[in-house]
Amino acid sequence: MKICFYVGGKEFGRTEYDKNYLEATKEMYNLLKDIGFDESELRLLVDKKAVHNERYWAKYFPEIFLWLYE
Questions:
Q1: Would the CA dihedral through 33, 63, 69, 6 be positive or negative?
Q2: What domain of life (predicted)?
């Protein structure tokens, strides 16, 4: 199983909420590592300039898709 987390630094345009969302995503990533998932099964991508929309998702789609189905 492979799981990819992708999160932007400006997800919703509210600084404190964006910070909490980013930290929660990192926490989930680390929890999965703690229970035994390894680096080949997990990926965390953070784009600090990205907001929550398709334009930013599209930027990473090829990389994520190729990684998931390699």
A1: positive
A2: Bacteria
Q: For the segment 31-48, what is each residue's pLDDT rounded down to a tens digit?
A: 999 999 999 999 999 999
Pull the structure tokens for residue 17.
């909420």
**C-beta of residue 32 within 8 angstroms of C-beta of residue 3:** yes
Token duo for residue 22: 């980013």
The secondary structure of the chain, three-state, reads CCEEEEEECCCCCCHHHHHHHHHHHHHHHHHHHHCCCCCCCEEEEEECCCCCCHHHHHHHHHHHHHHHCC
